[in-house]
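[recover] target loaded
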């Protein structure tokens, strides 16, 4: 029993299973359409989305301008994990990402656990992305003017149709307590609390039940699920178009925003200190989630061993530079305390008088966040497809559509899971769950690379993680650290050299 639980999968077995699965389904296999440029575009599409258009606001509200340090720190940490993903991808260019890599390194039980853990990153995590898309969409609708239809003040999406049930109920209870003091007014509260209060108040009721659901988030999830269902070629083209649009708009935001910076907003640069910086870590970490989704496209790559590592590392580098620049611009344009919003870029340009640009930002955010949703919706079905091939899920999950050449049933189930999460799980809880699932995957993939370093059955790697043997470096670093902690100070060093020079001078 214990042997079967920790049964590992060899690289040869993986290739054999893929061939057998294709033969069992009439020779149907995934279509190979992706090059290194497509993979990099997928990576940028997955990373630049909710991170730059939504969670960057909450992280900046916690840390102030010093949030840039957090982006640099998290980028370095994610780069280490990216090296491990890139090395595994060059060894085992198959779908499944962390699930498949864990199966190779640690066996079936760990693979089963991480396979379900990845649902938190992809399927459940897509809830936050869909909700962020909904916030920008409703903000954009408020700016729409169609004179010939008599629409002069925008198209208002009711609050009860743009928030989840639990958040609305919680917000209503908190605001009710606040308003119980007659001196307090609703307008004194942050905008998001006002909206949740109004949502619960205005929602149509059926007895004790109130109809509250995020309609735009549900609609975009269904649309993206359909796009992923109909084929990788269509998904690829849509992803590239979304990346081009979002990069152009981000560069436009930077070029205009840099001239609107008020440098007094940078003083102090670390208003909340180190605790404030660390408080925003979940939002910043979420901003980097997505590069690992590239590894799920391995079976649809023209040259996976070469192109996957390049796509993963290239996308992280591009996104890190953009994150740092954007965070400096928005914290320089307005006071950091005003940024605790789901649509901070829209708010920043509305407040500084660039309403035309805020509309462009809202449109690009809708496109960009949809791009992230697209990549994640594509990743989850392929993980389930790999689990199905291994007998850990029903065979139906590995069925390839005869026309579209996609894992059709798994794609539909993914759409159902995301829609269900939108209905019942608050976005703050989803953010934490998604980060937990991703960290778990990162730990196992990095550990797997270490475990397979000297495995004779591992095929030749076309990419190898650059590292220095820690057996020699860590003892030296530890000794230096202990030395610094032990009554060591700079004044003592200065006194030592001053005394030696003094002694030498008088002993000549």
């Amino acid at each position: 029993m214990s042997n079967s639980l920790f049964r590992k999968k060899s690289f040869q077995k993986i290739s054999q299973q893929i061939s057998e699965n294709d033969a069992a389904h009439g020779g149907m296999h995934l279509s190979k359409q992706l090059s290194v440029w497509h993979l990099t575009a997928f990576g940028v599409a997955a990373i630049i989305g909710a991170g730059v258009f939504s969670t960057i606001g909450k992280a900046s509200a916690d840390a102030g301008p010093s949030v840039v340090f957090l982006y640099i720190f998290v980028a370095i940490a994610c780069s280490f994990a990216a090296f491990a993903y890139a090395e595994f991808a060059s060894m085992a260019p198959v779908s499944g990402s962390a699930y498949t890599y864990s199966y190779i390194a640690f066996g079936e039980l760990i693979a089963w656990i991480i396979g379900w853990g990845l649902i938190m990153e992809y399927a459940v995590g897509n809830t936050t992305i869909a909700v962020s898309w909904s916030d920008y969409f409703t903000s954009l609708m408020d700016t729409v003017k169609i004179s010939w239809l008599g629409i002069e003040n925008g198209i208002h999406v009711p609050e009860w149709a743009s928030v989840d049930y639990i958040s609305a109920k919680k917000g209503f209870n908190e605001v009710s307590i606040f308003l119980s003091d007659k001196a307090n007014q609703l307008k004194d509260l942050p905008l998001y609390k006002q909206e949740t209060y109004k949502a619960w108040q205005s929602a149509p009721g059926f007895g004790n039940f109130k109809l509250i659901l995020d309609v735009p988030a549900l609609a975009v999830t269904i649309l993206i699920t359909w796009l992923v269902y109909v084929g990788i070629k269509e998904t690829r083209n849509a992803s590239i178009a979304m990346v081009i649009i979002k990069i152009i708009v981000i560069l436009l935001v930077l070029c205009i925003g840099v001239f609107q910076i008020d440098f007094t907003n940078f003083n102090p640069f670390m208003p909340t200190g180190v605790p404030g910086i660390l408080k925003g870590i979940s939002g910043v970490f979420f901003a980097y989630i997505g590069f690992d989704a590239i590894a799920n496209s391995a079976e649809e790559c023209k040259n996976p061993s070469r192109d996957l590592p390049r796509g993963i590392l290239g996308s992280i580098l591009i996104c890190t530079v953009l994150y740092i620049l954007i965070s400096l611009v928005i914290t320089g344009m307005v006071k950091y305390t005003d940024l605790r919003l789901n649509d901070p870029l829209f708010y920043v340009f509305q407040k500084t008088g660039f309403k035309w640009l805020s509309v462009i930002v809202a449109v690009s955010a809708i496109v960009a966040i949809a791009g992230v949703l697209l990549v994640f919706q594509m990743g989850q079905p392929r993980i389930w497809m790999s689990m199905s091939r291994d007998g850990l899920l029903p065979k139906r999950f590995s069925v390839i559509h005869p026309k579209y050449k996609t894992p059709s049933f798994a794609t539909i189930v993914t759409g159902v899971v995301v829609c269900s999460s939108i209905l019942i799980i608050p976005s703050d809880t989803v953010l934490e769950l998604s980060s937990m699932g991703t960290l778990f995957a990162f730990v196992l993939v990095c550990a797997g690379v270490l475990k397979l370093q000297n495995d004779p059955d591992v095929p030749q790697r076309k990419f190898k993680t650059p590292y220095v043997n820690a057996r020699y470096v860590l003892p030296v670093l530890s000794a230096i650290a202990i030395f610094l902690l032990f009554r060591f100070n700079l004044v003592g060093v200065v006194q030592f050299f001053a005394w030696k020079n003094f002694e030498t001078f008088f002993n000549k």
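[recover] notes: Residues 91 and 461 are 5 Å apart (CA to CA).
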